[in-house]
Amino acid sequence: MIDKKLLKEHNLTEEEYREIVKLIGKDPNITELGIFSLMWSEHCSYKSSKKHLMKLPVTGKNVIQGPGENAGIIDIGEGKAAVFKIESHNHPSFIEPYQGAATGVGGILRDIFTMGARPIALLDSLRFGPLSNPRNKPVMEGVVSGIAGYGNSIGVPTSGGEIYFNECYSLNPIVNVFCLGIADKEKIFYAKAEGTGNPVLYVGSKTGRDGIHGATMASAEFGEDLEQKRPNVQVGDPFKEKLLLEACLEVMGKKLIVGIQDMGAAGLTCSTSEMASNSRSGIEIDLDHVPQREKDMTPYEIMLSESQERMLIVAEKDKVKEVQKIFAKWDLDAVMIGKVTDGDRLKVTFEGKMVVDIPVDSIVHSCPIYDRPCKQPAYIPSIYDIGLPPIKKEYSKDLITLLTSPSLANKEWVYRQYDHMIQTNTVFLPGTGASVLKLKGTDRALAITCDGNSLYTFLDPKTGGKIAVAEACRNLACAGARPVGVTNCLNFGNPEKPEIMWQFKETIEGIASACETFDIPVTGGNVSFYNDTEGESIHPTPVLGIVGIIDDLSKIPSPGFKKEGDILFLLGENKEELGGSEYLKFLFNMEKGRPPQIDLEFEKRTHDFCLKVISQSLITSAQDISEGGMAVALAESCFFQKPLTGFSVDLYDKIRTDALLFGETQSRFILTVDPSHLEVLQTIASDHEIPIRIIGKTGGKKMIIRQHGKKIIDVPVENAYSAWKNAIQGIFETQ
Amino acid sequence: MKFGIVVFPGSNCDHDTYFALKDDLQQDTVFLWHKDHDLQNVDCVVLPGGFSYGDYLRSGAIARFSPLMKEVVEFADKGGIVLGICNGFQVLLEIGLLPGAMLRNKDLKFLCQHVYLSLSNTNTPFSNLGHTGQVLKIPIAHFDGNYFAPPDVIQEAKQNGQIVFRYCDVTGQITEEANVNGSMENIAGLMNKKGNVLGMMPHPERASEILLGSDDGKIIFQSIVKWLTQHNT
Lengths: 735, 233
Fold this sequence. Notes:
Order of helices and strands of chain B: EHEEHEHEEEEHEEEH
Distance between the termini of chain A: 53 Å
Strand content of chain A: 15-25%
Structural class of chain B: alpha/beta
Radius of gyration of chain B: 16 Å
Shape of chain A: globular
Helix content of chain A: 25-40%
Oligomer: heterodimer
């Protein structure tokens, strides 16, 4: 009955099938096969990535929960814990941008509140194909409105994120959603099915046929059959989720339940088997009691459905009535569908017949782990032959052009569609390096950032991995925050290709070494492989979500120049590094060269220095230098407050002028300092052997940069501002 | 003074409003569950922002049928002070405590941003601490805030001083450009004829702390406290 064709449809290999038969001691029936296909999919099992993920540092004194649960948890003091995670929803978002992105938000929110935390922030890392291609605009519009539609309704601020554009995402956009919640340390809940005889309750939306095989879809390449995959995308209902959120937090606040797990990828299958497996128990459910919204659903469909807004709860026997009463208050049913059992089996009945009877561990822990072959891609050495463009000496014009690159331009068109102020914690508006959220009732705040430059990782995955971590921590340092925990979303192509596996391995090693240097644990995350469409892979795209703590919010300088006459300091060194720059890419269409190199130890020292001078209120602003180089960093610093403040800078570096202006050498910051603090700052820098130098001062209506006394940039701030401000809005409003 | 914040399923600014009233303004504040029939002797009812019942039909269209709304209407009819913020404004329009309706924003997008409001009438329970023409910086966050009413209703509202807040620029000029959502007459806040029920799209509870960009929203809550103090004695 189970033939090669059926196995192929379930994305299982023949060897995997033989392993299944051996594990369960029988040929699986079709429902059991469906269960294995989901739980052994790349998305759920991490079978290709596990070996390499082990290299990431996962421990630290503040870690309450590392990888393996719904989300990671870090102790943030005063009895509170930060619960956070990032997840991808790339595949569904390409097939159906609005619902794909919306349910991505819904899914990550459930991961957070299922642990007893109230979500306080969402951030999104998005990657699209260039907006010059008309096919990409509706994808971006749909994704942005989907994120807005879900987040705004449920009332969690979308307080930050990042968006980059590259041709490699035209057929495979990236939608990574980060969520952070705050829980009482004493009221954290886990996916547990403890206590033989305890009832298993189903709460939330009824089960339909939507999303069947969502996880397996996310574990295969797309071909030309995209239209047919549309029914695999789930439909979100943020209102239902808001009710679930409130009801779940209420039953958890009253400690009425034993364990809870959301039904995300792999739905009822994943939640029942993982909860049982975590508690070394068995579980029995009767599908006749599962609320259904479509007729004649088969056990296969019910077990594999990925209908949204559903949770599974294990409660103590004598507290079921109280739990049900709270759900009823929120107009939700909590239906008993089974119980926790002795032993180790997942047993499912349907119309009185046993349709699934397998050991939970065979599904959850026995998937084969692959050590897939790695091979350095053929493009690697030759792509470093950069063949730099001739020097044109039109730097002012180049700067304006670069400011209109959608990857660098103002993103207000996007973030004003998101409710980024709800919950009244948002200290800086989106568009700054890090999202800063105050912790009510304290002087403290959390800073969160998502970062990842996929061009760097494409050119040199290990360096790219290091820089992704460093850049995120650099953004935190500018906000006066020390990093405390990391979650990562690793978006790659097909791991069965040795070149992709090599990119993956190298990137992880880069991330791991940076996390070790900065002493920050990785508490979880997500791997998204098979980001290939019609045989084309995306650039390796790691996204690092890093959380930092600000000890005294009153000391934190807001971004941007504050006033005329502040001294401009450059922290760090200028080097001739143009490889992988946005300048080469946007102006010359060159994705070439070695990306900037990074010395992690030095990088760490620059962060410590920033934190120190911020804690002593010595600077009026800090801006890191990243994509677009020093000229773009200086320009952006002019744009944060009106009236716009210009600057005048003198540089004496003996390097190519375009590299000086637009090169992306790492570990650099622009600091502004009131003249009265000049000497203290210099003393601290020299004590810590940190290279800083005065490069100019703020003021005037123009942005002026000189090299060896000769003007190389001379632009009215207002012109640069309007080019930067209107670029993305202009693209969408002229359709 | 005692404030009551009505919680509908899908309300999501209820906690923010509670925080602004209770923690920032130190007022006695309670949540009122929409299924109850008890206003708990509050002096002022606040209908908070959010997406009541998901707003899948028309914003506020279902919430008006919540059991507690019967008591809210009776309270308003007796002259009780009622403030509807954002979704709360939409509910007040749906239930008929205020005239007119909301259309989608003029550019058909959700808008979350700081806006400037010009205070057009200070002789109200909601604005008595301000001065006419004063400019307040308060954020908006809505999809359906494009206020619409027939010409006679607008005419009457103008004559009666029912228009309390209008969208303006930073200098207080009432311009088309400042009218971010396309509302008739730049209306951002509208009162009933009797002057005890106000609906406003901007969120004063989000402007109650300088750290978050503005504390101009406090004027509205403090005006209510002052008015109640004078009229309850």
